[in-house]
Amino acid sequence: MLTDLLVTTLALSLIIGVRYIVVGVVTHALLWRGAGRGRPLNHRPPDRRRMRREIVASLIACPIYALPAALVLEWWKRGGTAIYDDPNTWPLWWLPASFVIYLLAHDAFYYWVHRGLHHPRVFGWAHAEHHRSRDPSAFASFAFDPAEAAATAWFLPALALVVPIHWGVALALLTLMTATAVLNHAGREVWPDAWLKRAPLRWLITATHHDLHHKRFNGNYGLYFQMWDRWRSTELKASPSRD
Questions:
Q1: Helices 167-185 and 2-32 sit at what angle, rounded to 10 degrees?
Q2: Which residues are bridge partners to 40 per DSSP?
Q3: Is the pLDDT of residue 242 over 70?
Q4: Distance CA 237, CA 243 (A)
Q5: Type and span of the H or E element at 107
Q6: Given a cut of 50, is residue 179 above it in pLDDT?
Q7: How far is CA 241 from CA 122, 237, 238, in A?
């Protein structure tokens, strides 16, 4: 099993890395080429040197994220997880229900871990790399210290050991994770301002919401939903003057 695990980890590292580069390049080009698209949030366009640092940090994080996923895949091959491939294994209503459950669980987990990473005793060695991007780019979406990657990489794979999820739902969840992470770090808000004040966007983490976290550091810790920041009084709001 060890050889299979190593091969799967290497393969997943390559897949994660290539996906990250492709999505980052496409998103950055679409939003920043020429006059750009959407409302700019950055004080200045993303710095090329900083983007290179973001890419290096992200590629270092790839195998850290790949290892827990590879473990689950190897166990799945041996029938040891809660991942299933026949949609009739569980009632069809469980497909969307499991998607929502995973989102809510991941959001709650991430909020508290993320908030903990900002503790003064932890921040410098576990989360500082991500926050060197005060004017982030799409490439900052995955630019984590190894400690942060290790702290967050295990949760969804561990959940897949006990909470049933169809592989297609898992793929949709990973796609949503990638899209939201990239767009929320891209330095531009793609949604019209009026939409941000209406449901469902006023409940969700957007680039406008998360960019304040990169500018101020002391709030807006959520991943998908704004509710935890509101419940725990850590929500940051834009000031009339630019941050």
A1: 40
A2: 188
A3: no
A4: 10
A5: helix 94-117
A6: yes
A7: 31, 11, 8
pLDDT at 241 over 60: no
Q: Coil, strand, or helix at residue 85?
A: coil
**Cβ atoms 121, 200 nearer than 8 A:** no
CB 114 within 8 A of CB 148: no
Q: What is the pTM of this model?
A: 0.94
CA distance 193 to 184: 15
**How many angstroms separate the CA atoms of 34 and 153, rounded?**
36
Amino acid at 11: A
pLDDT-based confidence at residue 36 (cuts at 50, 70, 90): confident
CA-closest candidate to residue 30, choices 136, 138, 115, 185: 138
Q: Which amino acid is it at 122?
A: V
Find the DSSP H helices in the chain: 2-32, 48-77, 94-117, 120-126, 128-131, 146-152, 155-159, 167-185, 193-196, 207-216, 227-231
